[in-house]
Write a structure and sequence with these properties.
By secondary structure, this protein is an alpha+beta fold. Strand 10, helix 5 and strand 11 form a beta-alpha-beta unit. The radius of gyration is 19 Å and the shape is globular. The protein is 26% helix and 29% strand. The protein binds 4'-deoxy-4'-aminopyridoxal-5'-phosphate. 4'-deoxy-4'-aminopyridoxal-5'-phosphate binds next to helix 5. Keywords: Amino-acid biosynthesis, Aminotransferase, Branched-chain amino acid biosynthesis, Pyridoxal phosphate, Transferase. One of its GO terms (biological process) is branched-chain amino acid biosynthetic process.
């Protein structure tokens, strides 16, 4: 990660080293923080930077802030302004990942609802070719958190304790990525991404009620698949279906599209990147960079034309 010059805190641009929180704040003590991870893609020919799917990310952000009962309400316009001001102040002209977070400051307990601060940071994170994104995956013994205890559809820092345990287990066992099952034993998602498989040419991904984050990229993938004439299914997925899949990939803002070439040490299909995965990635990248694919509703340009 390259360090940006400025980070936005409560709408003020502060130097990187001054972006701090107190060690006794509820955000540090209990992970009381709602966040979004976004990406912006640089188009050198157009000399334009595009933040993708801003509206969708901020809708989820509003929902998480509401469910966490934070003493704050942000409008999408306000948040968009903060993101654009930050990218312009840092004069970003390359692919970046962004983090927007609302978090509980002060020295309260786990049920404190304020005071809330809002931060936004952008840091370099390139996007390589699909072949460089392939991963091995293993089903981990930790189960995905459930809606009855700590809802996975809230994008809250504390939820990532579960991701951490699974991800560490996967790595210790020699896999690049973890696949979590729900407590009912069905496929949920990865540690920081959703999972899709292809069976009989159909794109299948666990439904939104199967212990997943309601991923912006997952929805984009479903939209692209339908455009490409690939039938889609959102439904419960059994673990053994993973072994029957012709293709599999993780999807998320950070990982983008990551082809899974083996699961539990069994090859997925022929162990190569599949055609559906490749076609979806090509259209995703074109849409993100503004060179075809989906229209302007995907992208918010940062610089005046
Ligand atoms: N699931 C989890 C647990 C995640 O952390 C992420 C990354 N935010 C995703 C799925 C993918 O979500 P999105 O496509 O909105 O980035």
């Amino acid at each position: 990660m390259s360090t940006p010059q400025f980070i936005s805190i409560n709408k003020t641009l502060v130097p990187y080293d001054d972006a701090r929180v107190h060690v006794l704040s509820p955000t540090v003590k209990y992970g009381a923080l709602v966040f979004e991870g976004l990406r912006a893609y640089w188009n050198a020919e157009q000399e334009q930077l595009y933040v993708i799917k801003l509206q969708e990310h901020f809708e989820r952000f509003h929902n998480s802030v509401k469910a966490m009962r934070f003493d704050a309400k942000y409008s999408t316009e306000e948040l968009t302004g903060i993101v654009l001001d930050l990218l312009r102040a840092n004069e970003v002209r390359s692919d970046v990942h962004l983090r927007v977070a609302a978090y509980v400051e002060g020295s309260g307990l786990y049920d404190s609802t304020g005071p809330i601060s809002l931060m936004c940071a952008a840091y370099g994170r390139g996007s390589g070719p699909l072949a460089a994104k392939t991963v091995s995956a293993g089903v981990v013994s930790w189960r995905r958190i459930s809606d009855a205890a700590t809802p996975p559809r809230l994008k809250v820092a504390a939820n990532y304790h579960n991701a951490r345990l699974g991800s560490l287990e996967a790595k210790i066992n020699g896999y690049d990525e973890a696949i979590f099952l729900t407590s009912q034993g069905r496929v949920a998602e990865g540690a920081g991404s959703c999972l899709a498989i292809v069976r009989d040419g159909r794109l299948i991904t666990p439904s939104k009620t199967e212990g997943i984050l309601e991923s912006v990229t997952r929805q984009a993938v479903l939209d692209i698949a339908r455009d490409l004439g690939v039938a889609t299914e959102e439904r419960p997925v059994d673990r053994s279906e993973l072994y029957f899949a012709e293709e599999a990939f993780f999807c998320g803002t950070g990982v983008e599209i990551a082809p899974v070439t083996s699961i539990d040490k069994l090859p997925v299909g022929d162990g190569q990147i599949g055609e559906v995965t490749r076609n979806i990635w090509d259209r995703y990248e074109a849409s993100a960079r503004g060179v075809g694919g989906h229209g302007p509703d995907w992208r918010t340009p940062v610089y005046p034309r």
